[in-house]
Design brief:
Elements: H1 3-15, H2 20-33, E1 37-38, E2 52-57, E3 61-66, E4 76-81, E5 86-97, E6 100-108, E7 121-131, E8 136-148, E9 176-179, H3 183-198, E10 203-214, E11 219-221, E12 227-230, H4 233-248, E13 255-260, H5 277-289, H6 293-303, E14 305-309, E15 312-313, E16 336-338, H7 349-362, E17 367-369, H8 381-389, E18 393-397, E19 399-401, E20 408-411, H9 412-427
Parallel strand pairs: 1-2, 4-13, 4-14, 14-18, 15-19, 16-17
Antiparallel strand pairs: 2-3, 3-13, 5-6, 6-9, 7-8, 7-10, 11-12, 12-20, 16-18, 19-20
Helix pairs in contact: 4-9, 5-6, 7-9
Keywords: Aminopeptidase, Hydrolase, Metal-binding, Metalloprotease, Protease, Zinc
Family: Belongs to the peptidase M18 family.
Cofactor: Zn(2+)
Length: about 425
């Protein structure tokens, strides 16, 4: 595949996916364009060998499946997540101070707060409305123009700011939206934007899930364009690469892509990795195309493999001491196997060996990350999925800088590298 074309598709996906609901909708649109059939969890499923299907839950999580042309005896599964840390509006968001309408926010996930100051912010998410005929509808909203900002305090009023200052998310992160505005103005603005984007009129806004997002578009950065800078690389980059791999696969093997919401807040939800979404889908697939019964399901799971794909911490040139000297992944150095003896990552030597062999097959370099022994380690959907299902799992990811910032950075070549390996995984005939 052309690396430039791949990166252009990535930039488009990142720009058009300011929330998990938008990311899921955009993935669903690409799947449908490629011939995947949408399933509804509320209906009976009729599945056929060789068919391609997908299903969503909460409009923010998605599972896409390439059913094998032969018996369903094993699945090659890739897992990612659609959510990213950020600022979400509180239900009663409008508040006023010093003549300005502001928005009350709460932090979502482990957001890095300082980069949110002085950014051009848009508003996006899901809004539920009631039409004049009483019908309820959920619609997506994406205000991609700069309508809000969280202004910094001038250094003259805080001389010690560069010596380190705690940020209070309750009192110091409320963005300004409208001068002289009042609480009712937010509802008026939402109705105006819904009218402009969806042609909706004569509606009542019942509820919403909205968040702020940076309106600066994704970009290639560096003299040679060797970097990709964007919001939400963690973890829309993995969603994108997993989707590209599935669409590029040969369609012969059983292949599955799951992108869960709520990873950044612990995954404990109906559509999160700790919830029943993936297990529900797998049981329905196995009931129709696999070996029936509990024993048949366990045999399917133990014959399958899961690659949990979530970005890794690249070696930062200004903070090299934050990495173990032997485990500092480089941008554009290839995908990273993530290891943690305390099971914060699900990798073991057997699953890592399989991935190293896939990298050899795809002619892609491979790296390893282990956190310093004197630092804590983050986690992913990998250990959660392995615990819930029992499927042999490993954790990998593309290396990146500035994880959980409003704008993150990854290597341009790594997008192609990891996509090639994931495609090889979907096409692999023997998993063990």
């Amino acid at each position: 595949m052309s690396q430039d074309a791949l990166l252009e598709r990535l930039l488009d996906f990142l720009r058009d996916s300011p929330t998990p609901w938008h990311a899921t909708a955009n993935m669903a649109a690409r799947l449908e364009a490629a011939g995947f059939r949408r399933l509804d969890e509320r209906e009976a499923w009729q599945l056929s060998h060789g068919e391609r299907v997908f299903v969503t839950r909460n409009d923010s999580s998605i599972i896409a499946v390439q059913l094998p042309t032969g018996p369903l005896s094993a699945l090659r599964m890739i897992g990612a997540h659609t959510d990213s840390p950020g600022l979400r509006l509180k239900p009663n968001a409008p508040q006023t101070s010093a003549g300005w309408l502001q928005l009350g926010v709460e932090t979502y996930g482990g957001v890095l707060l300082s980069p949110w100051f002085d950014r051009d912010l848009g508003l996006a998410g899901r809004v539920h409305v009631r039409h004049a005929d009483g019908r309820l509808e959920g619609v997506l909203l994406n205000v991609d123009q700069a309508v809000a900002i969280v202004p910094s305090l001038a250094i003259h009023l805080d001389r010690e700011v560069n010596q380190g200052r705690a940020i209070n998310a309750q009192t110091q992160m409320a963005p300004v939206l409208l001068q002289g505005g009042e609480g009712a103005d937010l509802e008026r603005l939402l109705k105006r934007w819904l009218s402009e984007q969806h042609g909706l009129s004569d509606i009542e806004i019942l509820d919403f899930e909205l968040g702020l997002h940076d309106t600066q578009p994704p970009a290639r950065v560096g003299v040679e364009g060797e970097l990709v800078a964007s919001a939400r690389l963690d973890n829309l980059l993995s969603c994108f690469m997993g989707l590209e791999a599935l669409l590029a696969s040969d369609g012969q093997q059983g292949a599955l892509l799951v992108a869960n919401d709520h990873e950044e807040v612990g995954s404990a939800s109906a559509c999160g990795a700790q919830g029943p979404f993936l297990g529900d889908v797998l049981r329905r697939l196995n009931a129709q195309l696999g070996e029936a019964g509990d024993e048949g399901f366990i045999r399917l799971i133990q014959s399958s493999r899961m690659i949990s794909c979530d970005n890794a911490h690249a070696l930062h040139p200004n903070f090299t001491d934050k990495h173990d000297a032997a485990h500092g992944p480089a941008l554009n150095g290839g995908p990273v196997i993530k290891v943690n003896a305390n099971q914060r990552y699900a990798t073991n030597s057997a699953t890592a060996a399989m991935f190293r062999d896939l990298c050899r097959e795809a002619e892609v370099p491979v790296q390893t990350f282990v956190t310093r022994a004197d630092m804590g380690c983050g986690s992913t959907i990998g250990p959660i999925t392995a615990t819930e299902l029992g499927v042999p799992t490993l954790d990998v990811g593309a290396p990146q800088w500035a994880m959980h910032s409003i704008r993150e950075t990854a290597g341009a070549r790594d997008v192609d590298y990891l996509t090639r390996v994931l495609t090889a995984f979907f096409n692999r005939q023997q998993l063990v």
